[in-house]
Recover the amino acids of this structure.
């Protein structure tokens, strides 16, 4: 809550891709376990129903119509220090190229291209020696979650 006692987040819902026949996506499983409403992609809500949208590891362009449904826009948590490794697979590119430092970027989404909106915030993270993609992904996920708070 804010200092005023008002709730910072009044409503939280998740939109994700549908589960496959072989497995359920971790975000869908987490949302269900924590009783957070889950919707399948694509999902449109009335303008102003939510103040801001947040996307993470989402490989689809969002339409201008969808972005405009959120009065404060849509933010993307990207697991790199943009503009480096803009686009897909930034964690793999970080490791393949031997980067010793990476990080998380929070940026505003634009409708026609990936990872090109204004940067809101960035935080650096050291890449541990002999780090795996799974381990680095977990580090960057924790960092991104803290940044959103």
């Amino acid at each position: 809550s804010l200092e005023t006692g008002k709730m910072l987040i009044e409503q939280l819902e998740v939109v994700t891709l549908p589960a496959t026949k072989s497995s359920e996506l971790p975000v869908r499983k987490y949302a269900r376990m924590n009783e957070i409403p889950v919707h399948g992609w694509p999902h449109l809500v009335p303008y102003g129903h939510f103040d801001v949208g947040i996307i993470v590891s989402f490989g689809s362009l969002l339409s201008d119509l969808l972005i405009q449904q959120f009065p404060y826009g849509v933010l993307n948590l990207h697991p790199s220090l943009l503009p480096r490794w803009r686009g897909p697979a930034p964690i793999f590119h970080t490791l393949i190229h031997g980067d010793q430092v990476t990080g998380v970027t929070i940026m505003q989404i634009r409708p026609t291209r990936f990872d090109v909106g204004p940067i809101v915030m960035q935080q650096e993270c050291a890449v541990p020696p002999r780090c795996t993609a799974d381990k680095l992904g977990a580090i960057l996920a924790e960092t991104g979650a803290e940044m959103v708070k």
Summary: The chain has two domains: 12-45, 52-147.
